[in-house]
Amino acid sequence: MRIAVVGAGFAGIAHARVLGELGHEVVVFEKAPDVGGVWSVTRRYTGLRTQNNRKSYAFSDMPMPKDYPEWPTGEQVQAYLERYVRAFGLEPSLRLSTEVVHVVPTPGDDGWMVTVRPAGASLRPAEHFDHLVIANGIFSDPVLPRFEGYPDLVRSGGRLVASSQLTDVESVRGKHVVVVGYGKSACDIAAEIGQVAASTTVVARNLLWKMPKRIAGAFNFKYLLLTRLGENLFRYQTQGSFMERFLHGPGSAVRQGLVDWVGSVVTSQLGLKKLGLVPRGEFSDIARSTVSLSTDGFYEQVAAGTIAVHRDTQIDRFVITDDQPFAELSDGASVKADVVVCGTGFNQRVPFLGDVVTKRLLDPRGNFQLWRQILPHDVPNLTFAGYNSSFFSPLSAEVGALWVGAYLGGALGLPPVKERQALVAERVRWMEERTDGRHARGTNVLPFSLHNIDETLSDIGIDVSPGTRAMQWLLPVNPGAYSGLLAQLKKRIARAQVAASA
């Protein structure tokens, strides 16, 4: 088949590698001048690092370089992807600096017509592809709130940008900076600019629990959250394994005791009580919609007064006093605001699809209805990649690509569409409830990354060994353990094709 992939982040690159290896002709369109997605030089914000250690944040068939630090920088992650592209000869598949403007299904539903615009050029004639993979990223379209007084801010020389647009710390040197949000990007940026800005103020509507990289200064968080045991400390929609049923049944007191102990240690270690930054609710809420590592130096700068945090509040409006822009907050405070950086989340949308197709993908509340976060119910020749925000993004993307390869190769058993519709609707309802609406329109599977990987592989009928799965209960997941799955899939597709021709 001739396959178009939109996006050259981890998901797009994984699909180029897997689907190309399975014999398909793959073309990857990327509007940035480089591969990387959120790690692209055009989008990575100052201070960006991974939340995973380098050993767990990699494709199965190529580990990150040994000389990388435990938590690689954004630049290093992008360099790793460049190296991966070269290692597997994917360069001919890439069309960088090329934006997909719109795609439409062919009249006979035998594929898609894809129209693109290379940077600095006019629209190209539409090309036909048999299948379309959307890997445009769920963190690619930042939300910028509409603040009252924004025109006054701009007229006074102030700036309002998304976190992904602040790529140079020198641009805020000597400025009064307000950072909106309390997620990873907001705290990373605040810590990075705290030493160079005239003032750094974080405005947080809701405080989030943060996990130190080393709990009590010694225990690496990867042994807690990047294992099956850590994932199963939080209740999943269903309990499959014996250990999972035990932890949420007879062993629930042990499980809750461990979570509470970690919460108390984290609270003390980060000095949250003294700083007045203990989030509302319980520590188990850390996994409600995302899990964020504490940023190196952030709480130390709060304690030193370099960073000021206004909690449980938001910006009401911008005002100008003596040519100085101020942000007036709902708690009554007024803070200087030369630059406002918004780490306020992302829209989940696919603008090049058009309204008619998009409506077929969503439920009445705007949630994506995708089986295994991949397959729409009634839009043929279309799959999604990377719409499962995961701890193990490279591995999850790779497993998703294997699923698509099995689907296109006729080696995938699926429930009837009505059954899939009911199961997906129930899954989204559960996600919406457990995250208090912060489920990214159905694209968030955190913290249940391994559950998602297991379910995706179960459809294909391939998996790692039971021994490997057992080890993952106590040891952080090693993506290299999954490196043999592509070979397994090739054999499975060959058998399916033989059976179909018999």
Description:
The protein is of the alpha/beta class. It has two domains: 2-141 and 347-501, FAD/NAD(P)-binding domain (3-Layer(bba) Sandwich), CATH 3.50.50; 150-342, 3-Layer(bba) Sandwich (FAD/NAD(P)-binding domain), CATH 3.50.50. It is built from 16 helices and 22 strands. It has helices spanning 10-21, 74-87, 150-155, 184-193, 222-225, 228-231, 242-247, 252-269, 272-275, 298-304, 355-361, 393-408, 417-434, 449-460, 466-471, 485-501, and strands at residues 2-6, 25-29, 94-95, 98-105, 112-118, 127-129, 131-134, 159-162, 176-180, 199-204, 210-211, 214-215, 219-220, 292-293, 307-311, 315-321, 324-329, 334-336, 339-342, 370-371, 375-376, 382-384. A five-stranded parallel β-sheet has the order 3-2-1-7-22, covered by helices on one side. It has a five-stranded parallel β-sheet with strand order 8-19-9-10-15. The model has no long low-confidence stretch (mean pLDDT 94).
Summarize the model shown:
This protein has helices at residues 10-21, 74-87, 150-155, 184-193, 222-225, 228-231, 242-247, 252-269, 272-275, 298-304, 355-361, 393-408, 417-434, 449-460, 466-471, 485-501, and strands at 2-6, 25-29, 94-95, 98-105, 112-118, 127-129, 131-134, 159-162, 176-180, 199-204, 210-211, 214-215, 219-220, 292-293, 307-311, 315-321, 324-329, 334-336, 339-342, 370-371, 375-376, 382-384. By secondary structure, the chain is of the alpha/beta class. It has a five-stranded parallel β-sheet, with helices on one face. A five-stranded parallel β-sheet has the order 8-19-9-10-15. Strands 4-5-6 form a three-stranded antiparallel β-sheet, with no helix packed on it.
